[in-house]
Amino acid sequence: MSKTHLELTGVEMAFDTPKGAFIALDNINLKIRKGEFVSLIGHSGCGKSTVLNIVAGLLQATKGGCVLDGHEVNSPGPERAVVFQNHALMPWLTVYENVELAVQQVFRKTMGKQERRDWIHHNLELVNMAHAADKRPGEVSGGMAQRVGIARALAMKPSVLLMDEPFGALDALTRAHLQDSLMEIQQELNNTVIMITHDVDEAVLLSDRIIMMTNGPEATVGEDLYIDLPRPRNRVTLADNPEYVHYRQEVLRFLYEKQRKLEHISSRRPERPEASDDKQPKARAARA
Ligand SMILES: Nc1ncnc2c1ncn2[C@@H]1O[C@H](COP(=O)(O)OP(=O)(O)OP(=O)(O)O)[C@@H](O)[C@H]1O
User: For the domain 4-79+163-279, what is the CATH superfamily, name and number?
Assistant: First the structure.
């Protein structure tokens, strides 16, 4: 078993609000091994993005911290690439130039011009987007743009890939195709991946481990489920696999329990004054 690659220890995240400190996360402890694919799942507003932002170095924990390869994470770095739900490509640059921007940032000094060109094409090919290299993001579909976002992240050769609902906005077929590509690429590159998802099937299919978070405020790790299914994984054959069905039920059970708690709290307390309105926990039982 490989050693710990990334470690969160005693992480607390308190946000300043007009009504005082809002403790979003409390005592998050997590050890992740090199090459592990970890999904974060939990109800809306529980703090998944906050965890990801701390690992990305975009937020600083108010207590505890994050250590990657023995170094404390204090700021963003190219060894941790982030893929957001809405690709976040530069609309005025072509598909090629969007990837090039990231590659220049990381490899300007270490790769020659031709090597960089080949590397950009290689990454576009990985996600089947080389044919659209000269198109702008507005000229390709949402799924294609998302693939470019993934190529851009992979082209930085990140040792950690952080994904915040990367396939959330895509139709089912595109989503399935990208999930399969991601599994293949990750097997090949052995990156450590942390992915936020609301989709239970996606979490079980892709992950080595599913971290289920309790409801906020003061959210923490509720359950840590290891998905011991052989790879490569095939969604069609897995659908009837009793182990797969068991894992899926475990996650659903956890989420329904937490959902019941949310409903219980909201029936007793009509308002949650601490959290901002757009982040009030919502029922997402259908997809979560
Ligand atoms: N800058 C901030 N200031 C105050 N509160 C914040 C801030 N950022 C996040 N929060 C609160 O922290 C909690 C966790 O937010 P976060 O976005 O991490 O949740 P999430 O699980 O990713 O939600 P979702 O699934 O809806 O994306 C929420 O209650 C949110 O309102």
Answer: P-loop containing nucleotide triphosphate hydrolases (3.40.50.300)
